[in-house]
Amino acid sequence: MTTARIDARFASLKAEGRAGFVAYVMAGDPTRDQALEILRGLPAAGADIIELGFPFSDPMAEGPPIQRAALRGLKAGLTLKGTLDLARAFRDGDADTPLILMGYLNPIESYGHEAFARDAAAAGVDGVIVVDCPPEEADPLTDALDAAEVSLIRLATPTSDDARLELIARRTSGFVYYVSVAGVTGVKEAQSASVAPAVERVRKASGLPVAVGFGVKTPERAAEIARVADAVVAGSVLVDEVAAALEAGTSPVTAVLARVQALGDAVRGARVTETV
Amino acid sequence: MNAIIPNQYAMPDVEGRFGPYGGRFVAETLMPLVLELNQAYEACKADPTFQAELDDYLTHYVGRPSPLYLAQRLTDHYEAANIWFKRDELNHTGAHKINNCMGQILLAMRMGKKRIIAETGAGQHGVATATVCARFGLQCVVYMGAADVQRQSPNVFRMKLLGAEVIPVTSGRGTLKDAMNEAMRDWVTNVEDTYYLIGTAAGPHPYPAMVRDFQSVIGRETRVQMLARREKLPDACVAAIGGGSNAIGLFHPFIEDAGVRLIGIEAAGRGLDGPDHAASLQGGRPGVLHGNRTYLLQDDDGQILEGHSISAGLDYPGIGPEHAWLKDLGRAEYRAATDAEALEAFQLCSKLEGIIPALEPSHALARIGEIAHEVGKGGDVVLNMCGRGDKDIFAVAQHLGVEL
Ligand SMILES: Cc1ncc(COP(=O)(O)O)c(C=O)c1O
């Protein structure tokens, strides 16, 4: 399995002595073309890694912001195949930024595990996060992704005890995504006091970098998490920028990228200020 | 008929799988809870005091056993096999749903949970959940699609009288699947104190098996009653299918009896040839939703479609995984009835038997004549009368163009 792009990115972040910023956006939100423009602008705006959500009709672990984003994506006609096309279009102009797809299992089941893994690899996708596919159910998908050299990125949560962490770490690569709150996306705020020891546990169990997400809304919180994690994920606040821009009749592309810039700057500055 | 010999059928396996169906497809946050629930349920199953306590409440609070009634005028009407009603509409709260709620609430209390959440479509499961929560003094939150809140307003009021909080869900089309999504979001947010009381034989393991076990009291009683009355087993068991709990409850004790035909009736809505139905087994294909792999109504991209049925208890785009397996095995047969057929059967049963059925079993009633003819005179067909129609009279009046 090659996790070349992901590993290289975390290696250079380590060399810089800082955490990475992971930007989550939804495929097709608000249109295919604008989503592509957003994707293409993300690295320059400060995203070290990109998570690209693929829409699902029943996103059971998402709060209202990402639910609405998924609906906009579906309305724009973005299927899983369309998401892979979008990924490829991004990859054509960016050889280095790791690109992770994130979503739910049924569209992948419908596409077929092997076909999906093959087409994702061909589109330049580095990893996949499947929210409703715990380790107990993941072997068939992991087999297909392994064969295509695409990582299955696993989720660890506040409810994962040591035995589960071991299970979670067993067939994963790239990094582990630590869900910092018990809850859906975009509602509760992460408590940084509990995040630090959790990140340490996940790092130890997996031997992999740990990205922390689900409760990051402000630059202040992003900076706090950046001091203890290997990467900080923000999603709901970014897709909410799309919603707000649509409401205001302004450019979603500009709005999302400005927010990425602010959060990315906070992450980049977090450890520097500390050592000054 | 696929020959299943006694004692061969022991589903699901330890992973909660019925062949390729079932499983535990939930977010990682919920996995420890689902595993803990399974352990707690297994412990209760092995504990005779749990069963004794449940039996006591089923007898004195729910009103079991429910009668097995020979529907003589309906039998005469079709001039074919004897038609029997398993009268679960006589249960406290008016449907089979309380069999499951009583079992799960006792389990929840043993687990020390204080807050109960549930999803509901027709409102029958919500009412049953609110009822047992009132009885045992537990907090109750019910998620109900906004469209269903409209369609089933008497049940909404009932739940509120019982002290439950009813939260209308506006995402999606505002029906049962959306309510289930919202309940799962609540559960993942309140992992410490909350018990999710699922109302049908679907969801992540152990729910499909557990709900089936609690509903199997229907089939166990039917078996004893039919043997007492006719000194034989029924020739066919017939039940309406939403998520599949009343049907699996009737079917399960007969699965190893190859001579007993098991027939589930799905909601054909405006017809199986169009998009407006809720027949997951006959109009869907396998996929993953709400914690289990099963037949689903979905488009080519794997997006879940909204089911349609005149009955708010049947318009779920999925189906319990055990039915998916029984269908593939060929052990159960699945047919469908349209909105119009169900409405007609609703009226016929009311007039001939003096029993106003819920719209859900009206779907089974709509196919009972043809099944009685297939079985033939002298044979015995049991229909699960899983709910009474009080909750539906406003909706039916509207469909019939009657102003109340
Ligand atoms: C009376 C009645 N029958 C049937 C159903 C459908 O559920 P199931 O298929 O789980 O029995 C419902 C659901 O609300 C109901 O209220």
Automatic annotation (TrEMBL), chain A:
Enumerate the active-site residues.
E51 (proton acceptor), E62 (proton acceptor)
Record keywords, A-Z: Amino-acid biosynthesis, Aromatic amino acid biosynthesis, Lyase, Tryptophan biosynthesis
Provide the assembly information: Tetramer of two alpha and two beta chains.
Note the PANTHER family from the entry. Answer: TRYPTOPHAN SYNTHASE ALPHA CHAIN, CHLOROPLASTIC, TRYPTOPHAN SYNTHASE, ALPHA CHAIN
**GO molecular-function terms, A-Z:** tryptophan synthase activity
What is this protein identified as?
Tryptophan synthase alpha chain
Q: Which reaction does it catalyse?
A: (1S,2R)-1-C-(indol-3-yl)glycerol 3-phosphate + L-serine = D-glyceraldehyde 3-phosphate + L-tryptophan + H2O
Q: Which gene encodes it?
A: trpA
Q: What InterPro entries does the record tag this protein with?
A: Aldolase_TIM, RibuloseP-bd_barrel, Trp_synthase_alpha_AS, Trp_synthase_suA
PROSITE patterns listed in its UniProt record: TRP_SYNTHASE_ALPHA
- Give the record's family classification: Belongs to the TrpA family.
Involved pathway(s): Amino-acid biosynthesis; L-tryptophan biosynthesis; L-tryptophan from chorismate: step 5/5
EC numbers, comma separated: 4.2.1.20
Q: What does this protein do?
A: The alpha subunit is responsible for the aldol cleavage of indoleglycerol phosphate to indole and glyceraldehyde 3-phosphate.
For whether the record's keyword set contains Isomerase, the answer is no
Pfam families linked to this entry: Trp_syntA
Membrane spanning residue stretches: none
* Organism lineage: Bacteria, Pseudomonadati, Pseudomonadota, Alphaproteobacteria, Caulobacterales
Q: Which GO terms describe its cellular component?
A: cytosol
UniProtKB/TrEMBL annotation, chain B:
Cite the annotated pathway: Amino-acid biosynthesis; L-tryptophan biosynthesis; L-tryptophan from chorismate: step 5/5
Q: What is its EC number?
A: 4.2.1.20
| Enzyme class, broadest EC rank | lyase
PROSITE patterns, A to Z? TRP_SYNTHASE_BETA
Name of the encoding gene: trpB
The stretch of residues making up the signal peptide is none
Keyword line: Amino-acid biosynthesis, Aromatic amino acid biosynthesis, Lyase, Pyridoxal phosphate, Tryptophan biosynthesis
Quaternary structure, from the entry: Tetramer of two alpha and two beta chains.
Q: Which family does it belong to?
A: Belongs to the TrpB family.
Name the source's superkingdom.
Bacteria
Q: What is this protein called?
A: Tryptophan synthase beta chain
